[in-house]
Design goal:
- The protein is about 35% helix and about 20% strand.
- By secondary structure, it is an alpha/beta fold.
- The strands form nine sheets. An eight-stranded mixed sheet has the order 9-8-7-6-10-15-16-17, with helices on both faces.
- The protein has five domains: about 100 residues, Rossmann fold; about 250 residues, Rossmann fold (3-Layer(aba) Sandwich), CATH 3.40.50; about 80 residues, no CATH class; about 80 residues, no CATH class; about 210 residues, Roll (C8orf32 fold).
- The longest helix has 19 residues.
- The chain is built from 26 helices and 34 strands.
- Strand 19 and strand 20 form a beta hairpin.
- It is elongated.
């Protein structure tokens, strides 16, 4: 089976990304984009650690090259991979069809750097988004787990050139297309245009900036500058797409464009000026939309690398309107010159973004945009704000979420490109020292100043685990396995000192665990290995428990039975939510497997059930986000024999509905139940449950008896108020059971036939498949890419779902002439 999609909240469909424009500053955006967003926003033995220096520093760290098997078949691309492997004594990680297959080996190796070697046709925006998300899953913390970059180009020779680059780049000469002469401040020499001033061109030499007029525009001067002044860094913002960068923001000033790997300037007279600038350089497109997107090989990134001499760059793969992910890299790299390499600045800025999400917007930190199409932005943002209960002014929440996964970094991540350190030093120093097994990170100010708009951050010289914070908790630091972050703000005086003291154990690769997992994957049915490899990777150190469960499942003397057991366990593990992958015991997994097999052996309707139906709706050990328990054996002993006396699974489900709540002594109560999402044992202990808890109990009883069953529900009836009969106007949950080839609804703890529940009469006027809140969802164990809205945890997106609103409307149409049943007292939550 393919790797399951990550579930996202129900929302707008994906649509092709269209090229767009963006403003030169993070808070500014124009036209329809501005209006859409505005409308929505209204309603980190250790020795003292110096800065790393060149290739020797990179060699002191570990490195992995991730590459597809298909790319390795191409000899020139294999040569690029071999060059990176030799340069860093790196590990080669190969995947077949999905880059997420590499997660297992990467999580075991825990490399400091990861290069994703990919031709331009592979390095698409979805590839970038997937890598971002995957690189936060190598362990169980929320941070990015390695400094990574995508090594690509117009052809394999470009990638090979990047791979063979060893000399560090200390940047002296620069160029800019942003704010004219002022933007050349960080460089000893350079040239610039001004996106806000037509014809203005600037030349900096010997510390002095000369402004001159260029007509018809600055394109020819910029191109000549690349050829003669040989900049080592180029900074841009303003309008851009994946096919061009526009010189003027408020005027027509020509463009830089691409043509099958050739970078060229096009002036306003439509004259083309090819650029051939092979000197190594970095590109900082701080505020450009889409410049980092490679929808096809004929895009700006391959051309910048092929004929523009770019060795490293970052870039938005979507439109940018918030700017944290782009401008922050520029600010860290140029604002603290010499402290960080270019790739470190990108890495640390991203950790700052994740930290801001985790500290200011913790409830929403795991949300994902269902689409990055700016044409759907007004709908997407309005939907996210409502669907997940975002604050009244959700601009920062949405902006951080938008920027989190969309900024690509291209180039060898361990190659050193940095600014020279200023002669008078930086306003503060930051360094590590060690004594008596304790590591001290010391921040000391040398002159008065103001802390930047990013935390004080530094990579650790090597990875640590079991970290214990010993001093400095008042600073609220983050000490991760590979970096430290101290959130300081406001003004400071000279002589201020802050210290964070911690201890830890060196983190070593778990290669034995990886090889053990790989060995277990060899026995899987065809197609399951990629999904299990991804799941084992996401499980972190808990993967051994899952591997043990898979091996236990394979214990059978009959080969056919062994294959069925292994397939069932593989399906179960491959679709587990992330929290379950890192916590659920072998006992729970085997209870589900053995109980399902026993039910399949005893249920009289077993021959009528497809394998897929059993896997998705009988096998699973949980429904929503309730506490995980091994309940199946108990329920089978209590109810299975009597349920199997019924003729069909539907009749058995109705019998269970009339029986289990009386025998288990569980009744409905909206307020006396401890919580809505109770596990079976919690509901039994409390004696009360909500409609959600009752439904969980009934589904689990059905599954224990071999009856396919699942939770269904609506987040909110359109009539959001109680009616005359006391039926709650908010959310509702119920049960669906499979009988005679179709799904049928059943109200938990209600004495009514299939599809004759009280709420069926309301569905027509109280549901709306066009609005997520009024749509009807059925829970699914198999990941679908859609999440079940949990009204008690709206930001949660771990429960997969199917939108079944249309199926209910069809049922209503078929029963249009029938009089609806009178409802009993209403239920909720």
């Amino acid at each position: 089976m393919p790797i399951p999609p990550h579930p996202t909240a129900p929302g707008p469909p994906h649509a092709p990304q269209r090229r767009s424009r963006t403003a030169p500053r993070p808070a500014a955006f124009s036209g329809r984009l501005r209006n859409a967003i505005a409308g929505v926003l209204a309603g980190l033995s250790l020795l003292s650690m110096p800065s790393p220096a060149g290739e020797s520093a990179a060699r002191a760290r570990t490195y992995a090259v991730v590459v597809s098997a298909e790319t390795l078949k191409d000899a020139p691309w294999k040569a690029a991979a071999d060059a990176l492997l030799a340069k860093y004594a790196a590990a080669r990680v190969i995947y077949r069809s999905d880059v997420r297959e590499s997660l297992l080996e990467l999580s075991a190796r825990c490399p400091d750097y990861v290069a994703f070697l990919a031709p331009a046709a592979e390095a698409t925006p979805p590839f970038v988004w997937t890598v971002h998300r995957m690189m936060r899953e190598l362990d169980d913390d929320p941070w990015t787990d390695a400094v990574w970059g995508i090594v690509t180009g117009h052809d394999a020779a470009d990638a090979l050139r990047i791979a063979k680059e060893t000399a560090p780049l200390i940047i002296e000469r620069g160029a800019s297309g942003t704010g004219g002469g002022d933007s050349l401040g960080p460089f000893s020499s350079g040239f610039a245009s001004n996106e806000g001033k037509p014809h203005a061109f600037y030349l900096k030499q010997d510390g002095k900036v000369e402004e001159r007029e260029e007509k018809p525009d600055c394109i020819r001067a910029l191109v000549d500058g690349f050829h003669t002044l040989k900049p080592q860094c180029f900074i841009t913002s303003g309008h851009a797409t994946d096919k061009d960068w526009t010189v003027g923001y408020t005027f027509k000033g020509g463009q830089f464009r691409c043509d099958q790997g050739q970078l060229y300037g096009l002036d306003t007279n439509n004259q083309r000026h090819d650029i051939d600038s092979p000197e190594p350089k970095i590109w900082i497109p701080a505020g450009n939309c889409l410049i980092g997107s490679i929808p096809d090989p004929d895009s700006m990134v391959p051309a910048l690398i092929h004929t523009g001499g770019v060795r490293q760059m970052f870039g938005y793969t979507v439109v940018t309107w918030f700017g944290y992910g782009g401008w922050g890299i520029k600010d860290l790299f140029l604002g603290q010159p010499g402290r960080f390499t270019f790739s470190e600045a990108a890495f640390l800025n991203h950790q700052s973004l994740l930290h801001r999400l985790a500290t200011r917007h913790a409830r929403f930190a795991n949300l994902q945009f269902p689409t990055y199409d700016h044409n759907l932005m007004d709908r997407v943002m309005g939907y996210l704000a409502q669907r997940h209960g975002l604050p009244r002014d959700p601009k920062e929440t949405l902006g951080l979420l938008w920027d989190r996964d969309v900024v690509a970094f291209y180039g060898d991540p361990a190659w050193e490109a940095r600014m020279p350190a200023p002669q008078d030093g930086l306003p503060w120093s930051q360094e590590f020292s060690e004594a008596d097994g304790k590591v001290t990170f010391t921040i000391r100010t040398d002159r008065a100043g103001e802390w930047p708009n990013r935390p004080v951050m530094q990579r650790l010289p090597r990875r640590l685990r079991d970290i214990q914070l010993l001093e400095g908790a008042d600073l609220k630091p983050v000490v991760a396995d590979d970096f430290i972050l101290v959130p300081l703000s406001g003004k400071f005086e000279a002589g201020y000192t802050a210290r964070v003291v911690f201890s830890g154990t060196p983190l070593t690769p778990d290669l034995d665990g990886w090889q053990e997992a790989e060995a277990a994957l060899k026995d899987l049915p065809d197609g399951f290995a990629p999904a299990l490899r991804h799941a084992f990777g996401r499980a972190g150190t808990h993967r051994r428990e899952l591997v043990a469960a898979l091996r236990a499942a394979a214990q059978a003397t009959d080969e056919k039975a062994r294959q069925a057991r292994v397939k069932a366990m593989a399906f179960l593990i491959a679709n587990m939510p992330l929290a379950d992958l890192r916590s659920v015991s072998q006992e729970v997994l085997l209870d589900a497997l053995e109980g399902t097999l026993e039910a399949q052996a005893g249920a009289p309707w077993k021959a009528s059930l497809s394998e897929d139906l059993v896997l998705n709706c009988v096998l699973p050990y949980a429904n929503l986000d309730e506490r995980r328990e091994a309940w199946r054996k108990d329920f089978q002993q209590r109810f299975a024999r009597r349920a199997w006396e019924q003729a069909t699974p539907g009749e058995a489900a109705c019998w269970l509905n009339r029986t289990i709540f009386r025998e288990l002594k569980v009744a409905y109560h909206a307020t006396r139940r401890p919580k809505p999402n109770q596990s079976p044992s919690e509901s039994i202990a409390a004696g009360y449950a909500s409609c959600s808890g009752l439904s969980i109990l009934l589904v689990d009883a059905c599954r224990a008896c071999g009856i396919p069953a699942r939770i269904a529900g609506i987040p909110q009836w359109k009539a959001a108020h109680a009616d005359a009969q006391g039926n709650h106007g908010g959310n509702h949950m119920w049960v669906e059971v499979w009988d005679r080839g179709a799904w049928h609804c059943l109200g938990a703890s209600e004495d009514s036939p299939l599809d004759e529940t009280w709420f069926m009469a309301r569905i027509g006027e109280a549901s709306d498949e066009r609005n997520w809140a009024h749509a009807i969802y059925a829970a699914s164990w198999q990941q679908t890419g859609l999440s079940f809205p949990l009204v008690w945890n709206l930001p949660g997106n771990d429960v997969a779902a199917i939108d079944v609103t249309g199926e209910y409307l069809k049922k209503l149409a078929a029963k249009a002439a029938e009089k609806p049943a009178d409802p009993p007292a209403g239920k909720t939550n």
